[in-house]
Structures are given as structure tokens and as C-alpha cells.
Amino acid sequence: VLFVGFTAYAIIKHRLLNIRVIATEIMVVFINFIILAQALLSKTWSEGLIRGAFLLLTSYFGYLLIKSVISEIERRKEVEVLAEKLTVVNNNLLTLQHINNKMVSTLELRRVAQEIVESLSTELSWKGGFVSLVDEKKETINIAAISKKVLDKISPYLTKQIADYHLHLNKSESVLQSCIKKIEIEYSHNFYEVIKGALKKEIAQKIQKVLKIKTFACAPVVYRGQVIGAIV
Length: 232
Known about the structure:
- This protein starts with a helix and ends with a strand.
- The protein is of the alpha+beta class.
- It is rod-shaped.
- The chain has helices at residues 2-13, 19-40, 45-104, 109-122, 148-154, 175-182, 191-194, 201-211, and strands at 130-135, 140-146, 166-168, 186-188, 216-223, 226-231.
């Protein structure tokens, strides 16, 4: 009965048959069963009490042993999950490096900008994005390219061509401007905060709702030690 009970518990608790856990539990139950039989067959009360106390000790340490085996298996599963996530992150980083190398390998940035933003969705499985470039003369941040599927969804909310929208490089308080100024990757859950100064707040909120995007990442693009723009 004990054997069937522990086996059923192992199968239900640890999903199907976890051999290590089951083997440990069988071993513990078998040892305790032998000690229990010896205690019951003791010839004197004192001998029975000693063996009973020993049974309690082996039961306690057996429980700790089973618990440690289960903990080790759970930790191993966590490590496997983390390893899978790390693989995904590494693949994303390699893709980003590929995009960055492609962008800085030519001075004709606008020629490759569209290819870059399209690769955000095809290679990284993001919703999409846009590339913004800095115009030092006008001190503005301008959109050089935007993912086609994103542009198709937001076009009804725009009152002018996408290339006509811009941010002031120095006066803007947007996340995009901060990313370029600090040369750091910036994150935001609010699209209006990303492009603050280029669009009205209500329009930015409608666009975010239509796109169903929760997080925006702004990464600066550096060429020969100088920030030339950012990928959002």
C-alpha cells in the first residue's frame, strides 16, 4: 500500500515518471519498512523503542533526501529554461549586431534604413520600428524609415507625410532625444513619451492602442564615435 501510494504521489506531483524521485522514494520506503518490521518483531519493549526511534530518524532523513532530490531536479529545470532564454537573447544580439554593422558600413544610410526596420519584425519578431537620423544643421531628429506594416496602420492618424515629422535635438524632452544625447538604450511603455514634441498626446495614444504595443526600445546608432541617430 505504501509503495503504491508513494509511486502514485511521485507520478502526479512530478509529472509522469521521474525516475530519480521515484527511485529515491522507493529506497526510503523500503528501508523504513524493514526497520518497522524489525521494530514490530522485537522481543523486548526496550528493543522495540530503540528501533522505533531509529525508524523516526530514518523517516525524517529520508524525507530530507527526497526533498533535496526534488529541489535539484527543479533547479535543473530552471537552468534549462534560463539556457533557452539565453539562446534567444544571444540570437537577438547577433541580429542587432548584424543590423548595426549593415547600417554603419555605408554612408548612404537612407538606402539601407528601410531594410533595417523591416528586419526588426522579420528577424526579431518585434512589431516593427523606425530609424531616426540626426540633422546637425537643423538640430532636428528626423524619421528616415519606418516599418511598412506599422505605417499602414498609423497613416489614418497622420496629418502630413511621415518624413515631415521631427523632434528638436536639444529642446525635446522625449525618450528618443534622451537616448541620442546620453548614448544609452532607453525603454518606455508610453509611445507619447518616446516621440514627445512630434505628435499630440491624444494622437500618440491612439497610435499605441492601434499597434497594440506595450514596450518601446530606443537604441542609439553610433558611427565613428558620433551618434548619427537611433533605432526605435
